[in-house]
């Protein structure tokens, strides 16, 4: 179970539906390893990931005049943070299918905030939290820096469509070296409520996923996305 941090925003409604869109290879890796991959924070496409807004940076620069290591700490700290991103939405997202899957051969994991919380095993070797991302204007708005997790819970407003909730892991107090990321233990049956197959996929692909899941000993509900269902007129 994850740790609670009163400084981090997270809805109290544990039934809030969340999604992860991914390709088949990553999905099979999740099932086979029974570990959730978390990407190192500075490996995301968004170069602003884990950085500060302009008002905050100006304040940090002033504090760093007498302590130049202050800024270096934040730069290197990004290498010690791993993130697993989930999308909050009551329904499937056409945009998420487009962005995170390719060649009509992706799938989506449907879960809830509560399931995600319960699926994480207790970690004694590093800190781990779940929080919702805040979307702000990086030129005008302030990001607090009195908690080392805060930079990773803010993104620019242009990413607002992601409606992201994150599992964030901090290994800075350990000797763990993150290359591309980190895998953490999860209870797969608790984590996954339902699987949706890509809306443009063929029937053979859906049958393949069903067969693979069955052979690996899982019995999730699997259905094809209805975003491409037949029109009624």
Shape verdict = globular
* Stretches with pLDDT under 50, minimum 5 residues: none
Radius of gyration: 19 Å
What is the CA–CA distance across the termini?
49 Å
Q: Write the H/E string, N to C.
A: EHEHHEHEHEEEEEHEHE
Can you walk me through this structure?
The protein has 233 residues and is of the alpha+beta class. It has one domain. The chain has seven helices and eleven strands. Strands 1, 2, 3, 4, 5, 8, 9, 10 and 11 form a nine-stranded mixed beta sheet that branches. The chain has a two-stranded parallel ribbon with strand order 6-7. Strand 10, helix 7 and strand 11 form a beta-alpha-beta unit. The model has no long low-confidence stretch (mean pLDDT 88).
Provide key terms for this protein:
26% strand; alpha+beta; globular; nine-stranded mixed β-sheet; two-stranded parallel sheet; 11 strands; single chain; 233 residues
Give a short summary of the structure.
The chain has helices at residues 24-33, 54-64, 69-77, 94-100, 113-119, 188-191, 203-215, and strands spanning 17-23, 35-40, 81-88, 106-112, 127-132, 134-136, 154-156, 164-170, 181-185, 194-197, 221-224.
What is the topology?
Blueprint: E1 17-23, H1 24-33, E2 35-40, H2 54-64, H3 69-77, E3 81-88, H4 94-100, E4 106-112, H5 113-119, E5 127-132, E6 134-136, E7 154-156, E8 164-170, E9 181-185, H6 188-191, E10 194-197, H7 203-215, E11 221-224
Organism: Flavobacterium glycines
Protein name: DUF2971 domain-containing protein
